[in-house]
Design brief:
2 copies of one chain form a homodimer.
Chain A: H1 9-12, E1 16-19, H2 21-24, H3 53-57, H4 60-65, E2 70-73, E3 77-79, E4 87-93, H5 99-112, E5 116-121, H6 131-139, H7 182-197, E6 202-205, H8 214-227, E7 232-235, E8 252-253, H9 256-266, H10 273-276, H11 290-302, H12 306-309, E9 313-315, H13 324-327, H14 332-343, E10 348-352, H15 380-395, H16 397-401, E11 403-410, E12 413-420, E13 423-430, E14 451-452, E15 461-462
Parallel strand pairs in A: 1-2, 1-10, 2-5, 5-6, 6-7, 7-8, 9-10
Antiparallel strand pairs in A: 3-4, 11-12, 12-13, 14-15
């Protein structure tokens, strides 16, 4: 029998790349409607750029070169929203993305390359166009689906006045499923099972805390893990999430607590508080010095079972917040060091598309700009740095599965050791403006005269007097 | 190369049965939403009874016993209307009907029995839930699909005020496709092709005259006939339809002109003018005596090429008008004789579900009552009569492909000959209340002393003195 508490080993070795499908890449081989916004013009709230899944397929070489081994997609099912969180049909990939055909082409190619792919599961709410909701909109209380949603009056006010039905954040466009209805549960579980059976490697679960019944998510886990014990389940829980990671619900969460710590430490001195404030609904993000940061990042590992900590989705930003580089007012070094930390910390790093070439963007929708494929506008130094870090991680198992041991933390300077089965790897970070002649106590780990190789190409070092 | 003008031979030999899917039969093997209306209670405008396609499958024995060889379905694609003319998704059979799975199960069984199945194609308009329309509803002019419909202003007034977009009969629930858009054409042709390739035996085309471009329908014919040269294309054209039946568009039309003639003749003396008035938007239906009727029914054959006349869909009523039996105020003999005429006249007869057991019903929605499967409420005499007539038709090729020759027509009495390759069959109808000692001149056809067998079990007759 499968151990249902097990978290997938592939995740512990993965480097994720988050793709907002309308904005990553466009293929000539997907037929599109006519009135798309030009790729290079600024994004708008409701406009479509026309990115698609064959476009992703055509850039897998780029992603592999970047060190990416797994893709996390924002929603891809048919939807009338450019972000596709307003699901119209859970069984059809959006036609503008190339439909199910493009999806399965991509999936096959991803798997052929030994890569993985997870999907965004939006199960708390649907859209006004979702069949069963539309059914009530058209037929009122005569609709046999009337108990799929929570309706307070007929006819539905879906397009004028305030919604007279339960809607997420009372937004009429997002009618909330009545997940107490067993038929609705079966429907949602059916979707969960179907796409895993069809080969997806996991689900990122949108606002799971809104479905206020742990049994829902326990059953969800059983169903997906039965379909594939290696399916990855990662919840969008911005807060600490101990109760979600006990083995019976999710493997991991989107680690926005990690994000907040990175903003707090690496952003010190350059942060844009206006952009940072309200990030993911979290309380104010405090500034952290190296010592606070070391403590917090260590704590974020200790509060979870080890196998869950190693499977966390560690991100510096996402489609739901300003890009990291914008939050630090474009300070490349801050972002670069944060990325180095991300790539040398336990848990699966996740790069938000375009961050690696220096794409900037404030709050939604600005953080969802199209990927500029004109390499002339890329920050190649940054790109090379990130690629170096990812490949370090891929090359050294100690960076993925090793212990994380801060050994020195003072003001802007942080040193930590990763160690596993006799392999040791030291990371030294200086977020300040002045040079750090590091003098770190390591007698616990290394004998005198042990020589260090600088994996980033510097001079190396030799242990002297335990330092 | 295929002769694209050819009409399918199977149709010329078929007896159709029209099924309104929500109302014919319910299978325990299709999962349904909870709040269906009880089968036996009166129908309502928006209620769902929950008929399904496996229910049809489970009654194919019944239909074959009735002599039925082909099924014509009112729309089956996903729709929030109980009649399903408001198409939501042209590629999905409605979940309440059992979805695509039930459809393909049914189709396979229909074909296994040597029967045929045609679908209702609604290509002039969609629904407010149709993806591309919903897309405009949600995104306004930012939707890349904005030219799939004809929009006069944003945002769309789809659920309040008057529609500010082109809608069929200005009904907001029925947004009209912009069929001038080549992408829309390709989409619609794609549907037409897909379902034929998947095995459907033809399309009944809803309000085709609303797409005011003959090229659309010419291309439509080419596409479906390329997919299957034997696909049947029958348009809903209530008027005379010479221009549609020249070989480049449809094989046939729903022969409401035949219906009108039958109401005019067989309904004489019992007709309910209140119910009849406005039938299918036709001008007033005149009363006809036998001579008028003979002339009209002959004319209805002569105005079309012979191969189209033989492929006409001859119906006595449909889901769009009161049932024949109600139009003649329940006079069973009038309906029975009309059915006998229908079964002995050139063109494919089509029985509207339930007519054969005496189901009554006025205008929509009353004409769409659930089929009562409790045989205690059936009119068994009527059922037996209809079954006798259908089997006569199936047994005698002359009734299908033979010439139609009225030989006597006076007041309530009509006699006509069907003849083909030396087989002759005489039909004598008396719609009046008194006995008709028929004395019909037949010297043109028969020698004296030729003996007639009464196929309906009576005494037979012998020709004397050319009569």
């Amino acid at each position: 029998m499968t151990d249902l508490t097990h978290t997938p080993d592939w995740v512990k070795n993965a480097i994720f790349y988050q793709i907002f499908p309308d904005r990553f890449a466009k293929s000539k081989n997907v037929e599109k409607p006519e009135h798309l916004e030009p790729w290079s013009l600024p994004v708008t709230q409701h406009g479509f750029k026309g990115g698609d899944l064959l476009g992703v397929c055509e850039h897998l070489d780029y992603l592999q070169d970047l060190g990416v081994t797994a893709l996390y997609f924002n929603p891809i099912f048919a939807s009338a929203a450019n972000h596709r969180y307003h699901t119209f049909d859970y069984y059809q990939v959006d036609p503008i993305l190339g439909g199910n055909t493009a999806y399965f082409t991509l999936l096959e190619e991803v798997h052929r390359r030994g890569m993985y792919l997870i999907l965004d599961g939006v199960f708390n709410h649907a859209s006004r166009g979702f069949f069963q909701f539309h059914h009530i909109l058209e037929n009122g209380e005569k609709s046999p689906y009337r108990d799929w949603f929570t309706v307070y009056g007929y006819p539905l006010n879906a397009y004028h006045d305030k919604p007279n039905y339960s809607a997420w954040w009372n937004m009429p466009a997002l009618p909330q499923f009545n997940t107490d209805n067993p038929r609705v549960r079966e429907f949602l579980f059916g979707i969960a099972r179907y796409w895993i059976e069809q080969g997806a490697d996991g689900w990122r679960l949108d606002v799971p805390f809104e479905i206020k019944d742990p049994e829902f998510w326990r059953k969800f886990r059983v169903i997906t893990k039965e379909a594939n014990p290696d399916a990855y389940l990662v919840g969008e829980i911005p807060s600490e999430a101990q109760e979600w990671l006990q083995g019976d619900m999710f493997d991991a969460v989107m680690n926005y607590q990690f994000t907040a710590a990175c903003v707090g430490f690496f952003g010190k001195g350059s942060r844009d508080d206006g952009l940072i404030s309200g990030m993911m609904g979290l309380p104010e993000i405090p500034e952290l010095d190296a010592s606070d940061f070391a403590q917090r990042t260590r704590q974020l590992l200790e509060i979870y079972p080890r196998q869950n900590a190693l499977a966390q989705l560690n991100l510096l930003d996402s489609h739901d917040m300003p890009r990291f580089l914008s939050m630090v007012r474009g300070k490349k070094d801050a972002f670069r060091l944060a990325s180095l930390f991300q790539m040398t910390y336990p848990g699966a790093p996740c790069i938000y598309y375009g961050d690696e070439i220096g794409l900037m963007g404030g709050r939604d929708p600005d953080c969802r700009a199209p990927f500029p494929w004109d390499e002339a506008v890329w920050d190649h130094d940054l790109h090379n740095a990130i690629r170096t870090y990812t490949h370090l991680r891929l090359k050294h198992p100690v960076l993925r599965a090793g212990e994380f041991e801060p050994v020195f933390a003072q003001e802007a300077c942080l040193a930590y050791l990763r160690h596993l089965d006799g392999e040791q790897l030291f990371v030294l970070l200086n977020t300040g403006h002045s040079t750090w002649d590091f003098n770190v106590p390591v007698e616990k780990w290394f004998a005198n005269a042990v020589e260090f190789e600088d994996l980033l190409g510097g001079e190396g070092a030799v242990i002297e007097e335990g330092h």
